[in-house]
Amino acid sequence: MQEPKIIKLINLTLNFIIMKTKIQIALFVLTTLFTVSLNAQEKKSTTIKADSVIIDFHAGTPLEDIDAKSTDAKGIIKLSTGEFAFVVSNRSFHFKRSLMEEHFNENYMESDKYKVSTYKGKIVDYDKLDLSKDGTYKVVTKGILNIHGVEQEREIEGEIIVKDGKIHIVSTFMVKLEEHKIKIPKVVTEKIAEEVKVNVNAYFDTNNLR
Q1: 3-state class of 3 per DSSP?
Q2: Which of 206, 140, 148 lies closest to 173, judged by CA?
Q3: What is the Cα Rg of the chain in Å?
Q4: What is the DSSP code (8-state) at residue 149?
Q5: Distance between CA atoms of 20 and 2, rounded to whole angstroms?
Q6: Which CATH number fits the domain 50-208, given the four candidates 2.40.128.110, 3.40.50.300, 3.90.1170.20, 2.60.40.10?
């Protein structure tokens, strides 16, 4: 007569254990999904894409004015870490004279082979900045500048101007052609500068967080 009670008790115990295990598994799954969701939201809310990136450069000398401009560059920045990336199509640079543009793409940049130039890195001491507040912040960036297929580690200074949720990044720096294996024919060395002055203006809007 006692055996059915024992079996019933065993069955109840097993059912309790199974139910408890199922609850623990369900809680684990929910916790995992919630954590993943939070991480995804955090990632989504801290990456911002530039509305506009304008890059121009001056490579002339007193004997020749050589200026070019691109309005087709792209840029992103992670507001949570200060990491960034900029990319520009070399063929998007336009000159005042079509012959200059042709020489730039075919002879110097070899744009069919090296289609883009990039700068990827991070803002130094980014944790000390508060870009939620209006102001002008002087910054130093550290990253890899890739031009003509040659990578160079660089530290480039700039300013970040914040106003009403909009961010304007400004930077001017020099690029030595020799460091990126860009060869200039001797016949035009007096017309083309050995160092090129580059200006970058990037415009972001925090309403475009993704």
Answers
A1: helix
A2: 140
A3: 28
A4: T
A5: 27
A6: 2.40.128.110
Q: Is the dihedral of CA 57, 163, 77, 53 positive or negative?
A: negative
Structure tokens at 67: 């200026």
Report the 10 Å Cβ neighbour count for 44.
10
pLDDT (tens digit per residue) in 152-190: 999 999 999 999 999 999 999 999 999 999 998 888 888
Cite the DSSP H helix spans in 72-208. 98-103
- Domain residues of the chain, as ranges? 1-46, 50-208
Rounded-to-integer distance, Cα 155 and Cα 78, Å: 18
The pTM of this model reads 0.77
The pLDDT value recorded for residue 185 is: 86
Each residue's pLDDT tens digit, 47-98: 899 999 999 999 998 888 999 999 999 999 999 999 999 999 999 999 999 9
In angstroms, the CA 177 to CA 57 distance is 13
At residue 51, φ and ψ (nearest 5 deg) are -70, -35
Beta strands in 64-181 (DSSP E): 67-70, 74-78, 83-89, 94-95, 116-123, 135-147, 150-163, 166-176
Specify the pLDDT at position 78.
93
- Residue 53: other Cβ atoms inside 10 A: 20
